[in-house]
Amino acid sequence: MSKQNCWELKKCGREPGGAKSAEMGVCPAANSTESTGVNSGKNGGRICWAIAGTFCGGKVQGDFAQKSVSCMSCEVFKQIKQEEGPEGFVLMKPGQKYASASK
Question: What is the pTM (predicted TM-score) of this model?
Answer without folding.
Answer: 0.84
